[in-house]
Design a protein that fits this description.
350 residues; alpha/beta; Anaerobic Ribonucleotide-triphosphate Reductase Large Chain; 10 helices; 7 strands; globular
Length: 350
């Protein structure tokens, strides 16, 4: 890694978007509170450690194994009752005084897919859930399962305000477990409890590109831009990994890695700013595809820890104000997004 300038070492430029713990629950309700409390305490204390070292932590999350393995899904009523028990635990006075975002893992059966819109309607942000759609031997996704999921999306759009319950539901294709971001995240009960981190780095990328010297040769400009973004992100990842590995806690589980995606939010720089600094007039103009591929390489080529989750270019249209404005101005459409998603290592986001 090359030496970076002092301004790029500013820890406010790279935030820890999430500390996400993955744990398995069983149908023994008596064990739920202790497991959830321990993971919450760990997340809270690790967040404090990051704060002491200058890094902001934006959220603490918990992801479970498939909800059918611990909720009583024999009927909608029993599933709602068990979700209420989870909700009561998360709001219990015995829990740390912090907000915990919660995901109940994946739905695995047709019946579970049918009831999940109603679970989301009642429990919202503690009921993040996904469905993993498999592919066949020639790479074609399960069509019937996809249709069932699409029906769930339509149902959610009708029974939740403004259809916003669909922010709590993801249809996954080719997604591995241990994604630290919701609602695509899920955990397999046959693996050990663990935790992962996710980052928010658009501000860092913008600051890095502002530091690139003027260069008329296109290839040199792209190389210089790639190098400074990669090195700046690597610097902060090294710091964050060192803090994480050095943190000792009685409830610490296995650290499985970092999702290096930029993960823009409404409070960060827009990824549109990154594209403009790379020379693209606006997101959707000629050069967008090339820069999408370049940015993906930045996230994919980090070292020093396992790269888990998406670790690619996250084009979150609903969360990124610049991208949202681009849709209003008709600067790109769904077909363009699909084209860019072919090189971004993630696929379509929100």
């Amino acid at each position: 890694m090359n030496q970076i300038s002092d301004n790029l070492m500013n820890k406010n430029l790279c935030k820890v978007r999430t500390i996400t713990s993955f744990l398995s629950l069983s149908k023994d309700y008596s064990l739920w509170e202790e497991k959830i409390k321990n993971a919450s305490l760990f997340g809270e204390n690790l967040a404090n450690e990051f704060h002491l070292n200058g890094y902001e932590v934006q959220s603490i999350r918990i992801v479970t194994n498939a909800f059918g393995e611990y909720l009583d899904t024999s009927s909608l009523e029993t599933a709602l009752a068990d979700m209420q028990l989870l909700s009561d635990i998360l709001s219990s006075p015995s829990m740390p005084d912090i907000r915990i975002r919660f995901a109940i893992g994946e739905a695995k059966t047709s019946k579970e897919i049918e009831i999940l819109p109603y679970l989301i309607k009642e429990f919202g942000d503690i009921c993040n859930v996904c469905v993993n759609v498999p592919i066949d031997d020639i790479g074609v996704p399960d069509y019937e399962l996809t249709k069932k999921c699409a029906n769930a999306v339509q149902k959610i759009s009708k029974i939740t305000p403004r259809g916003e319950g669909n922010f709590n539901f993801t249809i996954n294709y080719n997604c591995k477990p241990l994604i630290p971001y919701f609602p695509a995240s899920y955990h397999n009960s046959d693996t050990e409890d663990c935790f992962a981190l996710g980052l928010e780095s658009p501000d860092l990328l913008v600051e890095a590109l502002k530091s690139v010297e003027e260069e008329n040769n296109h290839n040199k400009k792209m190389t210089n831009s790639y190098t400074i973004m990669k090195d700046a992100l690597q610097y902060h990842i090294n710091n964050i990994v060192d803090i994480t590995n050095g943190f000792i806690h009685q409830y610490k589980t296995k650290f499985v890695g970092i999702d290096t995606s930029a993960a823009p939010s409404k409070d960060s720089s827009s990824m549109v700013d990154v594209y403009k600094l790379l020379g693209v007039p606006y997101f959707g103009a000629s050069g967008t595809l090339e820069c999408s591929s370049l940015l993906t390489k930045v996230f994919k080529n980090q070292t020093g820890c396992e790269l888990i989750g998406f670790s690619g270019l996250m084009l979150a249209v609903v969360e990124d104000e610049g991208l949202a404005l681009g849709t209003i101005n008709k600067e790109f459409d769904i077909r363009a997004l699909l084209q860019y998603s072919s090189v971004c290592g993630i696929g379509l986001d929100t």
